[in-house]
Amino acid sequence: MEKEKLPWKRCYFRLQSKSIGEGSVVEISPGGFYAEVAGDVPLHQTLPVRIELPYRSKPVKAEIHVLSQQPIQDSRFVRIEAEFVHISEKDRKFLRNFALHYLLTDTLQGFQKEFDFPPGKNLKPVRGDSVIHSILKQSKDARVPVTGVVGGVAGGTRNFFEGVIDRLEGGRIYLRFLTPGVTPRLKLYQAIYLSFELKGINHFFESFIQDLDGDLGPVVSCPDLIYVDRRREPREEGAEEIEARLTLQGGKVWNVPVEGWSESGFSIVVEQNDFPFEVSEEIQSCELLTDAGTLLEGRGIVKSRVPWEEGDAKNRIRVGIEIEKRHGSYRFYRETFTKLEEGFFSKFLSLFNKAFLGIYFGYRKLLTALGRSSVPIEIVRYKNEKGQEIVGILNKTWAGKEKRHALIVIIPPAYARRKETTFALAHTIIQNFKRLGKEAVVIRYDGINQLGESYRDLECNEEGKELYHFELSQMVDDLLTTIRFVEDNDTFGCDGIVLVSFSLTSVPARKVILEEGERIKYWIAPMGASDAQDLIQNVTGGIDYLGDYAKGKRFGDVLILGYSISENHFGPDAVRSRTIFLEDAVEDMKRIFTPITWICGKYDYWVNSNRVRHLMSVSPNPENELVEVPTGHLVKTSDEALSVFSLIVKQIWKHLYRKEVNPLPLGVAQAIKIHEVEMARVRRNVKMDYKRYWTRHLLGGKNGKVGFDVLMFSKEYPEFLLDQTRLVLPRVRGVIGDIGCGTGNLVQVMLSDWIQNNRVPELPDAPAIISVDFVEQALTKAEKKHRTLLEKHGLVGYPLAYYNIDLEANGGLLKHFEKRHFSTLIASLVVSYLKKPEGVLSQFYKLLRTGGQVIISTLKPDADLSPNVIETLEKIKNLSEEEIPSDLTKEELLDEAKSYINNTSSVFNYEDKGVFRFYRKEELVNMLLRVGFRDISVIESCGNPSQAYIVVGKK
Predict the structure, then answer these.
(1) Is residue 370 over pLDDT 80?
(2) What is the CA radius of gyration of the chain?
(3) CA torsion, points 638, 643, 645, 648, in degrees to nearest 10?
(4) Minimum mean pLDDT among 410-414, 550-554, 673-677: which range?
(5) Distance from the Cα of residue 726 to its chain's centroid
(6) For residues 693 and 775, what is the distance between their CA atoms, to the nearest angstrom?
(7) Which of 65, 406, 583, 875 is 20 to 30 Å from 157 by CA-CA measure?
(8) CA–CA distances in Å: residue 746 to residues 670, 711, 732, 752
């Protein structure tokens, strides 16, 4: 390969090939590339490859010869040198200009020091040979001065010239020096960076020197891209799949195909008589729509109306419409995440027999045990001005104690969350920055008087009262203390700070940025709350604690998401710090110039997206973005969460380095291993009275009349139970076991369904139903429910039995039942709460008859039940008197529901502590396979999008 004669660029982009697998291209030119791939690859054979690069919706496809390969020390990867043997001229030209484009990054700093019109932040690419030729021709005809910058600028060497475009021929630009006799040092194939001002707009492009014409000037290659520095960007052609929705006078809506678009507007082709607006007139509302969502939206201004003469079209015009960029505008778009095909894991796992799986999973278990020590946990400790200690976890792109300068990403803890909950985001940032060749440090910490290892007052050490002295101003102080630490420590140097604030933390983050804006380069707010009042009201089922406190009402200590909060701390502090109301947030945002990306979950019912939109609309930075993602409020370990974390890396790279990248999400297996290691530290410190906890959870905290049963007033939960019971195959004189039955809702739904559809098995052949739980009061409640239902329908004598058994103590079920006793075993929402779920599933296998079935279910990782909760409260409010339980009033029922909503949040708190765990479907399937079950299928249930898995296996 002619490396010296062609522009090369060090980069990190994905390489795909069936012959050599996936890898990363680390250096590329029009003649070939260097890449890092796993394992050996065949040399000197023609191999097809695909390379994904920016500015291309389609990958570059080519055929290569691998010339050499070298192992990379301490890695399973090898570095290969490859040359292109078959590649289209179009792709080769694109690669040349791609490499030249990235030389801009290396020379930009020096260029800005030399000239009075440096490239600004509004650089936009112009593509298309005809458009580029037209721009260059206008420059030539007007004899516009062209400034050229050649190699050495980044190092401080001044080497530039001024000239004009003399002529354009055959894809070449012939330049002529403006000052005769002044010839800079130029070399063939040297990279060159050119700029000129045309009609008041600065143009920039990269090229390389193809020829030298003596003292006249260099001959350079025509570019594929020209960058313009202006607000009004050129239109992108070929956007037929995009549709514009225009709201006309009188509210009439008009949908029309888009002919071209950019980030500031679009063009359409319409019948002249159909379009009622003249140039400079306003259109009330414009939206650009695709199947994936809205690309642009806002008020439109007609900028041009010109005749359209293509084809046989007559009386048609091309209309240019600009989306008005007002002070404080922001860009809104939707992200979509790709999901695996339904049933993939079931189909895949069915290919393996039990013997092979036993060997495989035994080997995997050994590797996991050996690999735990390879996940480093670096703990840092620093103190605030009061001397109170903050404990954090530090992740760096480099190992060892060497001090390096790096970009710092700070992740404060969300309300009632520990630093360990954001492990996946931290590691996604680190692995991608390392892959892309930039140093980064991520620090996540526990807040003062919050969960975790940082300082807490004595009154906050009792379980459930860890946040008793919670204050929003303390979160502000914690963040300011962390900023001081990252800017002055012995471990790393600070090259800028990015702040990532989840949920309620976005409120104190806003205050910090208002105070320390110049120290924060970029702010990202995933599922961020616009104001404290809105979020607190939503998570408590409609109780406006903060709003009412500001009006003078007092409630005493309150329970928020399972934690007791002192009104004497939380309320007065929120008033003093002006963190309650949206109006205060709006006034703050008007003075924040830091670029912001706010990420909203499409299914997030805790955060009001309309309030977020209003907040973003007043911020003065036009680079701000509002992104909608297909998730709920919780994003920690699910596939969707890993996609959100990759999006965050992509946004950081785009805003700070002005480049589009395709980050790699954290691998599922890697995430599980890291999670286990970090949670092992936490789990050792957790003490839990399981029976006390589940008694309160199932029966309720006030009078024990409702508790868990409040979910039966929802829509999704009864349907979820029905999905499970309809999988049961009633056997003549069989035995159905409802294991971990709680208050008996699953059997209640099953019996009701049989009665309603006349499917009740006749005695004496009806299957017996055995309910098992270790909370005796819950069993008593379940039995009363079932007997009342059967008596109401004249089904006295149906075989029901109830057993008070701890599944993981004293032999569990095997101590009470003989092997092969059951025909069906159901464990609804149970496995996530067991210490050793595989041990219980092994009991199930022994207790089932041959041909029997097991049905287990669990909430998904990051399950978000907020829509279900809000819908339940609304349904209770609309109940008639006859539908309310006889021993409760509607107000009491609502109070019980709100109390339960707060209590049930503790389930997710214990997940954060490493006590409970919500499994992926692959993990559930694997557990069943390991204990011997077969013919396994997975069903998604509980809401839309679904929040739970139901897994069925046979013995």
Answers:
(1) no
(2) 32
(3) -150
(4) 673-677
(5) 35
(6) 10
(7) 406
(8) 36, 12, 20, 10
Q: Is 92 exposed, middle or buried (0-12, 13-18, 19+ CB in 10 A)?
A: middle
The DSSP secondary-structure symbol of 888 reads -
Q: How far apart are CA 902 and CA 745, in angstroms?
A: 21
Bridge partners, 841 (sequence order) = none
Q: Is the peptide bond before 764 cis (omega within 30 degrees of 0)?
A: yes
> How far is the CA of 727 from the CAs of 207, 827, 842, in angstroms?
66, 13, 21
Q: At what angle do helices 776-792 and 745-756 cross, to 10 degrees?
A: 10
Structure tokens belonging to residue 837: 């779920």
**Whether pLDDT at 860 is above 60:** yes
Q: Say which residue the tokens 């410190």 belong to.
A: 685
No. of H helices and E strands in the chain?
22, 40
What is the residue whose two structure tokens read 């007052």?
A: 457
Neighbour-count burial of 75, counting CB atoms closer than 10 A to its CB (0-12 exposed, 13-18 middle, 19+ buried) = exposed
d(CA 102, CA 96): 10
- The predicted structure's pLDDT at residue 232: 38
- Whether 745 contacts 712, CB under 8 Å: yes
Closest CA to 440 of 653, 239, 615, 274: 653
Pairing of strands 226-229, 217-221: unpaired
H, E, C per residue of 435-451: HCCCCEEEEEECCCCCC
Strands (E) in 529-678, as ranges, are 558-560, 563-565, 596-601, 625-629
CA distance 914 to 912: 5
CA distance 667 to 675: 12
Q: What is the 3-state secondary structure (H, E, C) of 216-261?
A: CEEEEECCCCEEEECCCCCCEECCCCCEEEEECHHHCEEEEECCEE
Tell me: the pLDDT tens digits for 272-305?
888 888 877 778 788 887 765 666 777 788 877 8
Strands 596-601, 520-526: pairing kind: parallel
Residue with token string 């050499």:
68
C-alpha 376/C-alpha 369 separation (Å) is 14
d(CA 225, CA 100): 10
| Cα–Cα separations (whole angstroms), residue 539 to 507, 509, 870 | 16, 20, 9
CA atoms within 13 A on the CB side of 77: 13
The answer to whether the CB of 577 falls within 8 A of the CB of 533 is no
pLDDT higher than 70, residue 202 = yes
Tell me if 413 sits within 8 A of 419, measured CB to CB: yes
- Residues facing residue 520 across a β-bridge: 497
CA distance linking residue 955 with residue 854, whole number of Å: 8
* Strands 293-307 and 316-323, sheet pairing: antiparallel
Burial class (CB in 10 A: 0-12, 13-18, 19+), 484: middle
Structure tokens at 70: 């070298």
In one-letter notation, the amino acid at residue 572 is P
| Burial label, 91 (beta-carbon count in 10 A; 0-12, 13-18, 19+) | buried
Whether the CB-CB separation of 742 and 782 falls below 8 Å is answered with yes
Query: Which residue in this structure is represented by tokens 């008593």?
Result: 780
Q: 335: how many CB neighbours lie within 10 A of its CB?
A: 18
Half-sphere exposure of 13 (CA within 13 A, CB side): 22
The H or E element containing residue 769 is strand 768-773
Q: Are strands 768-773 and 735-739 parallel, antiparallel or unpaired?
A: parallel
β-strands 9-17, 21-29: how paired? antiparallel
CA pair distance 635, 249, nearest whole angstrom: 42
In degrees, rounded to 5, the angle at the alpha carbon of residue 596 between the alpha carbons of residues 532 and 905 is 35
pLDDT bracket for residue 113 (50, 70, 90): very low
Q: SS3 of 585, please? A: helix
CA 689 to chain centre: 35
d(CA 600, CA 529): 9
pTM assigned to the model: 0.62
